[in-house]
Amino acid sequence: MLPGHPPLVSPLTFAASSGNFSYICTAAFPVGTAAASSSPLGIVPTRTERDQMATKVVSVAPRVEILAKSGINEIPIEYVRPESERLDLGDAFEEVKKAAEGPQIPVVDLQGFDSPDEEVRRACVEEVRKAATEWGVMHIVNHGIPLELVEQLRKVGKEFFDLPIEQKEQYANDQSSGKIQGYGSKLANNASGQLEWEDYFFHLIFPEEKINISIWPKQPTDYIEVTKKFGRQLRAVVTKMLEVLSLGLGLEEGKLDRELGGMEDLLMQLKINYYPICPQPDLALGVEAHTDISALSFILHNMVPGLQIYYGGRWVTAKCVPDSIIMHVGDCLEILSNGQYKSILHRGLVNKEKVRISWAVFCEPPKDKIVLKPLEELVADGTPAKFPPRTFEQHIQHKLFKKTRGDFKTPN
After folding, report:
1. Cα–Cα distance for residue pair 16/251, rounded to 1 Å
2. In this predicted structure, what is the pLDDT of residue 39?
């Protein structure tokens, strides 16, 4: 448990509908050693499980965008965080100013990994290893994705959220029927009834043979082309980062990518997060504290601050580093590395000046094909395995439903 914070919860989302709107409700569960995850995971609980999990039914609220544009000066009580969390909340612009003199998330230049000079290459590997070990997060620059394409991605994402609500609702998701991809809003269905100040659009972007173009936005007209191109370019960055991280563990460079499913099975899920202007940013969160259940997560944003990392016993507000991509270590990579790489606890602040949009891509292994466990090369008499073997599906079940090894038929 964090000092001054309530126990972490791991959110599970499912849908409820009312009138013309569909809303994502979140059931929260206590988490033991693993922190929480905010990635839509595709797990649809049974009706009995939902009844058992829900501790409080919250009233259906409109999209957060509607609330923000309604002219309210005070946010609804459902969005107000507990007093224990509010002690260190604030407007993202103010918090990033305060953080200027404190510890900063490392910036790693990936260009060195492509150098013909082996010493330069080794130095890049060590820089990534150190950041992944000590922080679990880094800004990566010279990542190889054309900056023009990054700007196009930002443009089409913003243009989608600039559409009238009625048009966006055509893409509304409905997890109760298994439709987890699409346009949604996150509502909490936990003891405090806390909601998050965020709308989003979620869908798979790679491998291309597994994507469902029919649920992607048709407006703007270049959304599909730009997003597919970005997915291909980012997969090359994922490959390179997994190579660097493998070498950082003393493994051959293709090891981690293969362990996570490789080019055919490693899934890349895009979640565009839309955080409207908030009249009381010292009371609300865009996303509550969690770790990502993925292997790696990559984040672009519109140069509006908001990301906070829990490091050294305090919340560190991330600076906006031009032309960079933020990369998080997730739970799966922490497991494979036997805890050497850290799945970082983070959250999202809001502000009362500018809309923040972020593009988060979660790199996830297939749910049942692969057993996640500490790699044999990293386990020895003095360093026993810190995590039991599980499939990705079983890891999700453990994290969300607190199921133990005895609940699983496989693996042993």
Report:
1. 46
2. 33
Q: Are the beta carbons of 365 and 260 closer than 8 angstroms? A: yes
Q: Just list the catalytic residues.
A: 271, 290, 292, 346
The parts of the chain modelled with pLDDT lower than 50 are: 1-60, 188-191, 403, 405-406, 408-412
Amino acid residing at 153: L
What pLDDT is stored for residue 408 in this prediction? Answer: 43
Structure tokens that stand for 170 in this block: 């055509």
CA–CA dist 161, 202 (Å, integer): 13
CB 313: neighbour CB atoms within 10 A?
A: 7
Rounded Cα gap, residues 260 and 266, in angstroms? 6
Cα distance between residue 243 and residue 38, in whole Å = 26
Q: Distance from first CA to last CA of the chain, Å, rounded?
A: 30
Q: Are 27 and 46 in contact (CB under 8 A)?
A: no
Give pLDDT, residue 193: 59
Q: For residues 275 and 201, is the Cβ–Cβ distance under 8 A?
A: no
> What Rg value do the Cα atoms of the chain yield, rounded?
20
For the chain, how many residues are written? 412
3-state secondary structure of 251: coil
